[in-house]
Amino acid sequence: MNKYYEVILPMTKRPIYFATPKNTDEYAPNTLVIVETSRGKELGRISNLPPIFAESSPTKIKISTSNPNKNTKNMILKLAKADDVKKAKQREIQAQEAKKLIKQRIEFYNLDMSIQAVSINLEGTHIIINFYSPGRVDFRQLVKDLSSKLSMKIELYQIGPRDRAILLGDCGVCGRGLCCKNWLRDFSSVTSKVARSQGLSLTPNKSYGACGCLMCCLKFEREELDNNQNEQ
Predict the structure, then answer these.
(1) CATH number, position 108
(2) Rg of the chain over CA atoms, in angstroms?
(3) Could you give the CA distance from residue 218 to residue 215 in angstroms, rounded to a whole number?
(4) Are residues 150 and 97 in the same domain?
């Protein structure tokens, strides 16, 4: 029976479920592991949630939707060794150098996009670039240019304002770290109706989070109010 663990990768907005080979020992929270993804081998960290099993139908949905490539089964290959961690740090340095070049080429092509994060897989064959832009961007020429200069497969992903906040991290109006960055798994939208039902103003400085969208905690408070009313 396969166990599935949540693994946090540097370039993902939330943990992804990875399978372990059968009869594998338990992985402790925060353990560094080497995983196989559609981009090759990457260094990840086991989250603090317990493993799950594929036989439970709710978890099947989670496992399926968390897999970035439906044709590839995300797998935990092994515990990370000292050499793996050293290699990952080298790739981080390489990614930061590549980021400088990417920014230069974006300016050269006068593209309305800002680079949020850059990562290179352990083998050095794929470079993943997350960027933010308020509109659509034609980056085909940029990809050809970067492919020739970096000699790697280029993967560009346009992220929205919420994903941008997750990558950058910040504090909410409550003074704590953003829910989406630290623990939130359900990223369903929050409507203005939820805010109005709590008698809150829709002004940006009161009801909107760092991403420019209505704060996720409004939904939690609405659910708590509903539960209290049902109990009464």
Answers:
(1) 3.30.300.20
(2) 20
(3) 6
(4) yes
CA distance 120 to 98: 9
**pTM more than 0.85:** no
111: left (phi over 0), alpha (psi -120 to 50) or beta: beta
Range of the domain at 194: 170-231
* CA angle in degrees (0–180, nearest 5) for 56-185-127: 105
Domain boundary pick from 26, 54, 80: 80
* Chain segment 18-76, per-residue pLDDT in tens: 888 776 778 899 999 999 988 889 999 998 877 876 554 344 444 444 444 444 468 89
In whole angstroms, what is the distance from residue 212 CA to residue 207 CA? 9
Does 85 map to a domain?
no
Nearest to 155 by CA among 147, 163, 165, 164: 147
Q: What is the mean pLDDT of the chain?
A: 79
When pLDDT is cut at 50, 70 and 90, the band that residue 156 belongs to is very high
- Span 98-139, pLDDT tens digits: 999 999 999 999 999 999 889 999 999 999 999 999 889 999
Residue 177 sits in the same domain as residue 214: yes
